[in-house]
Structures are given as C-alpha cells and as structure tokens.
Amino acid sequence: MEGGDHLAHERKKAQFDVEAMKIVWAGSRHAFEVSDRISKLVASDPAFRKDNRPMLSRKELFKNTLRKAAYAWKRIIELRLSEEEASKLRFYVDEPAFTDLHWGMFLPAIKGQGTEEQQQKWLPLAYKMQIIGCYAQTELGHGSNSSKWWPGGLGKISTHAVVYARLITDGQDHGVHGFIVQLRSLDDHSPLPGITVGDIGMKFGNGAYNTMDNGVLRFDHVRIPRDQMLMKVSQVSREGKYSQSNVPRQLVYGTMVFVRQTIVADASCALSRAVCIATRYSAVRRQFGSQNGGPETQVIDYKTQQSRLFPLLASAYAFRFVGEWLKWLYTDVTQRLQANDFSTLPEAHACTAGLKSLTTAATADGIEECRKLCGGHGYLCSSGLPELFAVYVPACTYEGDNTVLLLQVARFLVKTLSQLGSGKQPVGTTAYMGQVEHLMQCHCNVQKAEDWLKPAVILEAFEARSARMSVACAKNLSKFTNPEEGFAELSGDLVEAAIAHCQLIIVSKFIEKLQQDIPGKGVKQQLGVLCNIYALFLLHKHQGDFLSTGCITPKQAYLANEQLRALYSQARPNAIALVDAFNYTDHYLGSILGCYDGNVYPKLYEAAWKDPLNDSVVPDGYREYIWPMLKQQLRTARL
Ligand SMILES: CC/C=C\C/C=C\C/C=C\C/C=C\C=C\C(=O)SCCNC(=O)CCNC(=O)[C@H](O)C(C)(C)COP(=O)(O)OP(=O)(O)OC[C@H]1O[C@@H](n2cnc3c(N)ncnc32)[C@H](O)[C@@H]1OP(=O)(O)O
Ligand SMILES: Cc1cc2nc3c(=O)[nH]c(=O)nc-3n(C[C@H](O)[C@H](O)[C@H](O)COP(=O)(O)OP(=O)(O)OC[C@H]3O[C@@H](n4cnc5c(N)ncnc54)[C@H](O)[C@@H]3O)c2cc1C
C-alpha cells in the first residue's frame, strides 16, 4: 500500500476524543494552541532541518547549531514572540545549544540570587542577548578550587558565567557563593586576561549532545568586582565585612530546584516521543502468527510487546501530570520565599531532587526499551531513537547524579520520621507519615483482581510500602553510634526507600489528576486505565518490596498481575490515539518509524539511498585497500 494513512484503521478504533486528550496533555487549551502553532512553524522551515546531524563532523555540527540559534533568535524578534512562544520555539528546534543554559540557568540564577539592583543591571542585557551566560558549578576534580569542567555553553560561546566558588574574607571561609564573571571580550570574543577557557571534547553519540560546547575554565588572579557577587542571600560590604540576610543558606542552590523541576517536565516529552515512535511502528510491523490465512499479526498485539510498551506509555502520562504538579509546587515555594516563608523549601528540594532522579532514570531506560521494541530498525539513526537516547541519557547525571539526589531525599525522609516523636505533623507529600502506626500494621484489602482498580487500595499499598521501608531504615540507623557512618553503611537501603517514596508521589498525583473535571468523551476513562497500568506495573516490578514488607500477600501480587494483563487489553485499541494526543509533528519526532502516516518501509528504503556512502557505487578506499587485497587473493589462489 503506497501513500495514504497506513494507521487509519488504528485511529478508527479509538474509544475517546483525541482532540480533547491533546488539551489534557498540553495542560490547557492555550498551551495546546501555542505548542501546535510553534511546532508547525519550526517543522515548515527548512532552516531547522535536523536529519543530517549524524553525518556532520563536530565543527560542522557546532557551526550549524550556531546558525540555527542565531536564526531562531531572528525569528523570535521578527515575529515578536512572547517568552512562552520563544521557549517553545527553542524546544521544537530540538538541538541542545548554549541558549539552553543562557535561558535555563544563567538568567534564573541571577533572578533567584541577585539583588534588585543586580537584576536591573544584568537581566536586560541577558534578555536582549547582548551578553550570553552559562552556569559554572561543577569541577574537574573534587573541591571548589580546581578547574570548572562541564558547564554547557562555556566552551566556545558564553561571554559571562555565574561561577560558584568559595568566598574567603579576612582569611575566613564562608562557603560556596555565586559570582557573575565576564569571561570573554564583547568586541573580539577573546578570553579576558587570566582566563583559560575551551571545549572539553567529544561526547557520547554522533551528533547528539555534541552540538553543545561543554567547557573547561581556569582563573589565574582574576579580580571579580564586589558588586558581581550575587548578594540576595549574603553580602560583602565595601569595607569587606561579610553578612547574611535572614534567609536559609540553601537558597544559593535555588537554581537547581528550578531546573530539576523543568527536567521532570522534559522527561515526559522525551519518553512520550520514544513511545510514540515505538507504538506507531509496533502497529505497522507485522510478524508471523495469523490464523486462518488472514493478515499477519501486528507486533503490537503480542502480549510481550504490550507488557513492555504500555507501561512506558502510562509512564509518559504519569510524568506529564507529576511535572505539572511539580511546577505548581515550585511556583508555590517561590511565592512563599518572597513572603519570607521558608517552611516548604526542604520538601520542594526533596521532591525536585527525587522526581528528577526517578523520571530521568525511567526515561533513559524507556528510550532504550523503545529502541529494542522496534527491532533492528530501531538501531538505524533514521529511527530517531539512537540520537534521542544519546541526548537524553546524561540527564541521569547532570543537575545532580541520580543516586546522590536520592540520598538527599532519604535524608529528608529520615528527618521527617525523627520529628514525629516531637509531635511535628508532616504535611504535603510526607503527610502519610503522620499515619505511620496504621501503615505499619494495615492489611491490603484485595480479594479479586478488580479490587486493584480502587484508588484507595492502590494508595494504601504504596503508602504502607514507603512508610515501612523508611521506618526500617530509621530503626537500623539508630543502631549506629555515629549517624554519618550509619547513613553511609545503609545507603543502599536508603536509596530504595527514597525510590518507594517518589513512586508514591507519582502514583498519588496521577490519582489526584483523575479527581479533577476532565472534559471530552472517554478521556477520563482512558487516563484511568493508564493510571492503573502505571501503578500496577510498578507494584509488579517491585513486588519484592511489597511482599517483604508484608504490605501484600503472594496471592494479591498474582491478582495485580492478572489485572494488569486485562488493562493492557483495554489500552490496546486506544494505543495509537493515545500517542497521537502528544501532537508531535514528524519534524519533532525525527523518525521514519514513528511518522504519522505509518508509511515506514518506502521511507526507510528511500532514506538509505540518501546516505553519503551511497553517493557512488564504488566507495572511496576501494582502489586503495580492497582491490589490491582481492588481487593478492587471486594470485594466491592461482599458485
Ligand atoms: C530551558 C531549560 C534549560 C535547561 C534545563 C533543562 C534541561 C537540562 C539540560 C541540560 C543540562 C544542563 C545543565 C546542567 C547543569 C548542571 O549540572 S549544574 C551542576 C549541578 N550540580 C549538582 O546538582 C550537584 C549535586 N549535588 C548537590 O546538589 C549538593 O547538595 C550541593 C548543592 C553540591 C551541596 O552539597 P553539600 O555537601 O555542601 O551539602 P548537602 O549535604 O548536599 O546539603 C546541605 C543541606 O542543604 C540542603 N540542600 C541541598 N541542595 C539544596 C537545594 N538545591 N535546595 C534546597 N536545599 C538544598 C540539603 O537537603 C541539606 O539540608 P539539611 O540536611 O537540612 O542540612
Ligand atoms: C551533559 C552534561 C552537561 C552538564 N552541564 C553542566 C553545567 O552546565 N554546569 C555545571 O556546573 N555542571 C554541568 N554538568 C556536570 C554535572 O552536574 C555533574 O556531572 C553531576 O553533578 C555529577 O557530578 P560528578 O560528575 O562529579 O559525578 P561524581 O560525583 O564523580 O559521581 C561518580 C559516581 O560516584 C557516585 N557518588 C558520588 N558522590 C556520592 C555519594 N555522596 N554517595 C554515594 N555515591 C556517590 C555517583 O553516584 C556516581 O556513580 C554537566 C554534566 C553533563 C554530563
């Protein structure tokens, strides 16, 4: 079958209003309209072509990224795009660039940690791109006195950086503070005196994240003007006297709370993109197994394919909704901080750190699983999946290594439990710890598979598992005379307790989403199916935790799995429509396997002939290397 919509028969099976689901996915009608308009604008502009990335050398690739960034900026100005539209445009251009750090970290760091005066001086310059900034925190080795290493945008482009360094006055070390430092001349871009700066070299994957100039930076007797220390949290007077505002020191790390929150939202984008490709291809791809001489089986009908694919589809939706909630939490904590209420900062830190860790790990693994779900073709660059994986996987490391972040969550949980004794009632995401006595001894009330569809049953099982794992850690920690030694010794268990807590947050936020008014025929029902798939898939995957803590019985674990299979069958007819609801253009997906019309094979065939290796029938190097070898063999054979 040439041309046409090869997935039309799949789209007809949908039992819900796809257009309404698009709005739920986008977050609002307004968000949908902006996203839809800007994604089409980018897709229709040949200047934003990206299919040639894997073929380019690093230098060509990088120059091309600079061209695109400059062109994107020109379009933003010409079209008078709002901040929201401009950020969507950069998102759909889909190429990591120095601009990500300029808008995503440099500006937020100044906004969050600069005084009013500092903001007035620096923000207009940065908003107009008259200076370009990056965020320089990580060091080559350990400590804050070796060389900065890794900051994106630093290597070749940034004119300025927010640099994190120790502040020492009168021989006294006041710890790490942020400073705005000019790195390069605004006239000829050469490094300023005392500054050594460059790119740190090629990274994982062809194309992929190599569009970014992650950099190295050294200072030799560089003087930073006093008023370029970010002084919202602490100040140094003209006389060199150090003082601190009446705010927690941890605000110095506030930019990370902001960025981790955006990374959770980004996880749903990356995972949904991979799932869209794998779902469409699984419906196109047929294999043996038909009965009565009918058409061969679509691989999406294999139960094994469903049990690998549908939990990822459900996870994409789950991460979308927890990302939405996290954005709310971040806005709320920001407003409270402005009113000098710092009470929810530890929770905001724990939630952003933990959810960043969980969603990026699941997304990186999920993209790789989607590649395998596409069989051999998933390994072709034209599937879009190898590059997506290579670009995405460092999310498990940047903005805090995922294990290190889970340990931060564990500290927060242990602290929360220890405060119960003093009568402090936990609130927000740890409110369930207030019922710890009940959760330590409750019994799961599931007798038949459908009982697992009750939100209260699911919630109690996840709360009990999390509470019991945290309490077990706290009890074991109390056996150590040195708490830090205990924390290090038990860190493996603490990480698992933190994971259980974060999974509970995601499940509970999905359930809360379903309690809202969600318009559109069948939309809520489909989201209900996905929510149950997400929860029961986690329960199945981590049944060791649920069983060993006595939260459920082996029979109940068996029933959960039985229910999960039934849910896969319910999701099956809606699968294509559920990925259509992401509303991704073929340009953004960047995948032949995931193209909207499902016309995969002719496109794969055509794309192969466009590979530079096929420019000539006889390749370069044949005469030089292969021909003499063949001749040599011929002579040997004749002898
Ligand atoms: C459009 C969007 C653009 C971009 C973003 C989108 C996608 C990203 C794309 C590309 C990647 C680009 C950039 C990547 C940038 C970076 O990676 S920047 C470097 C980030 N580095 C880290 O995250 C290091 C991880 N380590 C930490 O976070 C450490 O906590 C620390 C900040 C280094 C401090 O360590 P230290 O040992 O000194 O202290 P701790 O014991 O860890 O903490 C002490 C107490 O402070 C509390 N805490 C820690 N961090 C925070 C925080 N951020 N907010 C609030 N509170 C915090 C901690 O809980 C301790 O509290 P206590 O137990 O009560 O004492
Ligand atoms: C693509 C990319 C972009 C980046 N962009 C920026 C940027 O713009 N600006 C910037 O400042 N930085 C940036 N970074 C750096 C990034 O933030 C760090 O790499 C990250 O925070 C991890 O730190 P590390 O590399 O020192 O890892 P390490 O801390 O050396 O981790 C190595 C291993 O040790 C383990 N480990 C470390 N500490 C502990 C502990 N306390 N307990 C148990 N295990 C531990 C980790 O789990 C990991 O397995 C970027 C990194 C990447 C990969």
Automatic annotation (TrEMBL):
Active-site residues from the entry: E399
Residue span(s) of domain Acyl-coenzyme A oxidase N-terminal: 17-132
GO cellular component: peroxisome
Molecular function as annotated in GO: acyl-CoA oxidase activity; FAD binding; fatty acid binding
Swiss-Prot/TrEMBL cofactor(s): FAD
Places the protein is found: Peroxisome
Record-annotated Acyl-CoA oxidase C-terminal domain positions: 455-631
One GO BP annotation of this record: fatty acid beta-oxidation using acyl-CoA oxidase
Pfam families documented for this protein: ACOX, ACOX_C_alpha1, Acyl-CoA_ox_N
Stretches assigned to the Acyl-CoA oxidase C-alpha1 domain: 253-414
Binding site for FAD: T138, G152
Keywords: FAD, Fatty acid metabolism, Flavoprotein, Lipid metabolism, Oxidoreductase, Peroxisome
Entry's family note: Belongs to the acyl-CoA oxidase family.
This protein's name: Acyl-coenzyme A oxidase
Organism: Nyssa sinensis
Lineage of origin: Eukaryota, Viridiplantae, Streptophyta, Embryophyta, Tracheophyta
